[in-house]
Write a structure and sequence with these properties.
This protein is α/β, with parallel strands linked by helices. It has 2 domains: about 300 residues, TIM Barrel, CATH 3.20.20.100; about 80 residues, no CATH class. It is about 40% helix and about 15% strand. The chain starts with a helix and ends in an 11-residue tail after the last helix. The N terminus is likely disordered. The protein binds iron/sulfur cluster (SF4) (2 copies). One iron/sulfur cluster binds next to helix 12 and helix 13.
Length: about 400
């Protein structure tokens, strides 16, 4: 029996037990309210001590490209849009800026994430991660959005406690808040999330946590525990990567987005989620979740089945990075692979792959590959596949 198989079996057992726990959660209603939204009734929750009340489904902008879809989401009652300084080199923020032009400023909540350069192996900041550079990026984001201030400014892509507490960035965010450039400050993490969330709580600085959280995470019990601690301390918690790397778009592998969303929202400590719907039909499905969070029997069955499969979601455990002879940033490459084949967003994947500064020859010179992925990914095959995006002219990619 291979190690991978043992891992997967244990994972399956833990996941089943955890989902059982979720099925019996009872007190969700105490932390939420139901509001009429046209002919529908949507569930709202409060974002910690910020006091912001939002529907439990918001819009993740990572793969957004259609301004009419964003307009439709806002018209339907979505309040919160989640973007980032780096998405499509600022064009994502510009798209939002175009859509919100003319809308009352208090009718929407904008969160954007500002990154700083870090070492892809240690996840610690490099010398270029300065207060000034952070503030410069923030100003560029405000310009793209056409706004004087954000609702939530995030310290983006944090994977270590040291980074969460990194003084130059904390100072920059403090200054941004003092200068009225943001109402609230937050932190985003999609690797080593429990450590980062605990650091955010300890800092007594952050007001919002944006974290990966989904039914395929092997360490979701630890994430759930950290989220509970954050909520107790008054931080608002927003969940991302809730679909676990799968989308609607592969007809051969139909997925159940409602089940994945409900699984996250069964946790009463999560205020809202930011799924990235790409079509009007997908939007309709995601919004309908807000009318009833109860998992149906077929949704439970779907989650149990999917939880035992490796799928496309890299756990970010980092085991492979210690083993790789050339120290490639494998989790980032697996994320790019997921963007390509899960989200069907090769442009986004290409941007990530190019940003990694990879060697020209990749996974071609090792006699044999010692990398054993903890969930059984064929790492070199996926790397060679996704690295081809470097050679595709940008204008050929949708
Ligand atoms: S084949 Fe690729 S993943 Fe494997 S050790 Fe070599 S460079 Fe690393
Ligand atoms: S590729 Fe596999 S071993 Fe590497 S971080 Fe992802 S899940 Fe862990």
């Amino acid at each position: 029996m291979s190690d991978n198989l043992i891992d997967r079996r244990n994972f399956m057992k833990a996941t089943m037990a955890g989902m059982g726990g979720f099925f019996f959660l009872a007190a969700v209603e105490n932390k939420q309210e139901v509001r009429a939204q046209g002919s529908k009734k949507w569930i709202y929750r409060t974002l910690g001590k910020t006091g912001i009340k939002v529907p439990v489904v918001s819009m993740g902008m990572v793969s957004a490209g259609n301004p009419n879809l964003v307009r439709a989401a806002l018209d339907a009652g979505i309040i919160h849009l989640d973007t980032a300084h780096g998405y499509q080199r600022g064009q994502n923020e510009e798209l939002i800026g175009e859509v919100i032009k003319g809308r009352p400023r208090d009718s929407y909540i904008i969160g954007t994430k500002v990154w700083s350069p870090y070492n892809r192996m240690t996840f610690l900041y490099t010398e270029e991660a300065t207060e000034e550079a952070f503030l410069k990026r923030l100003d560029a984001s405000l310009k793209h959005l056409g706004l004087d201030y954000l609702d939530i400014l995030y310290h983006h892509q944090v994977a270590r406690r040291e980074s969460a507490l990194f003084e130059p960035i904390l100072k920059a965010m403090e200054k941004a808040k003092k200068d009225g450039k943001t109402r609230f400050v937050g932190i985003s993490t999609h690797r080593n999330e429990p450590e980062v969330i605990r650091a955010a709580v300890d800092s007594k600085f952050y007001e919002v946590v944006l974290t990966s959280y989904n039914f395929k995470q092997r360490h979701y019990l630890e994430v759930r525990e950290a989220i509970a601690k954050a909520a107790q301390a008054g931080l608002g918690v927003i969940a991302m990567k809730v679909m676990a790397g799968v989308t609607f778009q592969d007809p051969l592998k139909p997925i159940n987005p409602s089940a994945a969303l409900k699984w996250v929202l069964k946790d009463p400590n999560v205020t809202t989620t930011v799924p990235g719907f790409n079509t009007f039909e997908e939007m309709k499905i995601d919004l309908a979740v807000m009318e009833d969070l109860a998992l149906t029997d077929s949704e439970k069955e779907y989650l149990q089945k999917q939880a035992s499969l490796p799928g496309l979601y890299c756990q970010g455990c980092g085991q492979c990075m210690k083993q790789c002879i050339t120290k490639l940033p494998i989790p980032d490459l697996m994320r790019a692979y997921m963007y390509t084949y899960g989200y069907r967003k090769p442009a986004f994947a290409q941007e990530l792959v190019v940003s990694l500064g990879l060697p020209r020859r990749i996974c071609e010179d090792c006699d044999s590959c010692p990398v054993k992925c903890s969930i059984g990914f064929d790492v070199p095959r996926k790397i060679r596949d996704v690295a081809r995006l470097r050679d595709v002219p940008t204008e050929f990619i949708a």
